[in-house]
Amino acid sequence: DTTVKQNPRYKLARVGKPVNLICSQTMNHDTMYWYQKKPNQAPKLLLFYYDKILNREADTFEKFQSSRPNNSFCSLYIGSAGLEYSAMYLCASSLGTGGDEQYFGPGTRLTVL
Amino acid sequence: GEKVEQHESTLSVREGDSAVINCTYTDTASSYFPWYKQEAEKSLHFVIDIRSNVDRKQSQRLIVLLDKKAKRFSLHITATQPEDSAIYFCAAASSGSWQLIFGSGTQLTVMP
């Protein structure tokens, strides 16, 4: 099964409230990624886990948290949502590094009001 | 840091014609160049890639060309079919890096 699952598919949040998005894969991939995608823009890498090690991009370091309790699951946590967080959030996984094919989930569309 | 620019935001071709999507990158250390396809209401999926040790790669109707001197790579889809209609994203990564830098996508429409 090469499916990456994401829950929920749609999320409505209020400004200032927390948001938690979930991703899972059963391919035993070492690396899991979270991207933010806004309309007509490139997917932007927010952070990734290689095994248990979390790497966050410098410009999004304080905005997003993540946890990976086991190899299959990875979450993306926003402590206090702002309007600018409205976007599609894509989870992906790969066997190893960025030089390996990434398998993407269907995305979670987050709308912050 | 690396920037990947995808030059055509939209592209329309007639069924059976070829489509070409062009991308440029800025980091000379980039060595891995994948292409992803997103069909309507579906997630991105990998279609083809090329590494910097070659300048051409073909998989059925897909051809990827890489010009390292010009820091340019392109996706050629030959004998286009309606099911080729989708958004195509190019990306680049440095050797050993986890980070794929994506272009902003090209909406390809294949008209019957």
Low-pLDDT windows of residues of chain A: none
Give me the count of strands of chain A. Answer: 11
Shape of chain A: globular
What is the residue-mean pLDDT of chain B, rounded to a whole number?
Answer: 95
Estimated helix fraction of chain B: under 10%
Question: Biggest interface and which pair forms it?
Answer: A-B, 24 and 26 residues
Give the amount of beta strand of chain A, in percent.
over 45%
Count of alpha and pi helical runs of chain A: 0
How do the SSEs of chain B run, as a string of H and E?
Answer: EEEEEEEEEEE
Overall strand count of chain B: 11
Give the overall shape of chain B, derived from the CA principal axes.
Answer: globular
Determine the strand fraction of chain B and express it as a percent band. Answer: over 45%
What pattern of helices and strands is seen along the backbone of chain A?
EEEEEEEEEEE
Mean pLDDT of chain A: 93
The radius of gyration computed from the alpha-carbon positions of chain A, rounded to a whole number of angstroms, is: 13 Å
Q: Cα distance, first to last residue of chain B?
A: 41 Å
Low-confidence parts of chain B, pLDDT < 50 over ≥5 residues?
A: none
Rg of chain B, Cα atoms, Å? 13 Å
Which structural class fits the helix and strand makeup of chain B?
mainly beta
Q: How many helical stretches of chain B?
A: 0
Profile the largest sheet of chain A.
7 strands, mixed
Your description of this structure?
The complex is a heterodimer of chains A (113) and B (112). By secondary structure, chain A is mainly beta. The mean pLDDT of chain A is 93. Chain A is globular. Chain A has no helices and eleven strands. By secondary structure, chain B is an all-beta fold. Helices cover 0% and strands 57% of the residues of chain B. Chain B has no helices and eleven strands. Chain B has strands spanning 4-6, 10-14, 19-25, 30-38, 45-51, 56-59, 62-67, 72-77, 86-94, 101-102, 106-111. In chain B, strands 2, 4, 5, 9, 10 and 11 form a six-stranded mixed β-sheet that branches. In chain B, strands 1-3-8-7-6 form a five-stranded antiparallel β-sheet, with no helix packed on it. The model of chain B has no long low-confidence stretch (mean pLDDT 95). At the A-B interface, strand 5 and strand 10 of A face strand 4, strand 5 and strand 10 of B.
